[in-house]
From TrEMBL:
Top-rank taxon, per record: Eukaryota
Organism phylogeny: Eukaryota, Fungi, Dikarya, Ascomycota, Pezizomycotina
GO molecular function: oxidoreductase activity
Family: Belongs to the asaB hydroxylase/desaturase family.
Full protein name: 7alpha-cephem-methoxylase P8 chain
Region feature (Disordered): 70-101
NCBIfam families: CmcJ_NvfI_EfuI (NF041278)
Compositionally biased intervals (Polar residues): 75-84
InterPro entries on file: AsaB-like
Length: 258
């Protein structure tokens, strides 16, 4: 595990180089306790900071967000598994689901990305910090496609966040009662992976995490050297003080078009 801030003096980082970027960008929204306020206010801040950081962006479509709090009562905890949020198939499905049908095919012909905008809430993310893998140290064979399964429901609620249910031990190998809602990458261990983290990252800072890029080198005919994704995970830092506040964070998931 490497300290990102100190490494930045000898290694270049960026969403198109390493797959991630960290920089200072204070938000007007600070509490993130009201989903409506997040959608009606903070989403606009996220779109603005993306376009400021990456001026070539022409269109941003934010499709959801997740707030994680290290509290027993919180349904969404930090995820301790190295993963990438979307596979190429899942990324295309997001474009088809969240854009105007009259624009979809044209948008799919151009360059599009999925970028997560991650920020600590309330205090520095000392407890269970977020680590990212430098894309340049990954290999395509490290990526393992995994279906996202959610239990069937008849409550007309299509928001699955925080509603995951583990199957009964007797049906662990069965998908009965579940439906596929997406596809992610799990990441196989590789001694060549270089992990970085921004120690004590503050709420005034954001991290951009690229999950997909339609023009990256991982695709046939893609641009050589263009980062395709950023494996990431929460982890236990043994240097975390015993009295550190539980991590709170928000990640906003964005379709980005050029």
């Amino acid at each position: 595990m490497r300290a990102l801030r100190s490494a930045a003096s000898i290694t270049s980082f960026g969403v198109d180089v390493s797959g991630f970027d960290v920089f200072k960008s204070p938000a007007k929204e600070t509490e993130f306790t009201d989903d409506a306020a997040v959608r009606n206010g903070y989403y606009g801040e996220v779109e603005a900071l993306l376009k400021e950081r990456i001026p070539e962006i022409k269109k941003v479509v934010i499709f959801d967000h997740t707030i994680r709090r290290r509290e027993k009562s919180s349904p969404r905890q930090p995820v301790q598994q190295v993963h990438v949020d979307q596979t190429p198939g899942a990324a295309e499905a997001r474009v088809r689901r969240h854009t105007d049908p009259s624009e979809t095919e044209e948008l799919l012909k151009g360059r599009y990305q999925i970028i997560n905008v991650w920020r600590p809430i309330g205090h520095p993310a000392t407890d269970f910090p977020l680590a990212v893998v430098d894309y340049r140290t990954t290999k395509p064979e490290d990526m393992i496609k995994v279906d996202l399964l959610y239990p069937n429901r008849d409550d007309n609620d299509d928001d699955d966040r925080g509603k995951e249910v583990l199957p009964h031990a007797s049906t662990l190998r069965s998908t009965e009662g579940y439906q596929i809602k997406g596809e992610t990458y799990s990441v196989a261990p590789n001694d060549g992976h270089k992990f970085y983290y921004a120690k004590d990252m503050t709420p005034e800072e954001v991290m951009l995490i690229k999950c997909f890029d339609s023009k990256s080198e991982v695709h046939e005919g893609g641009q050589h050297g263009l980062a395709g994704y950023t494996p990431h995970t929460a982890f236990v830092d043994p240097a975390t003080p015993a009295d550190a506040k539980g991590r709170q964070s928000i990640e906003v998931r964005c379709l980005v078009f050029y």
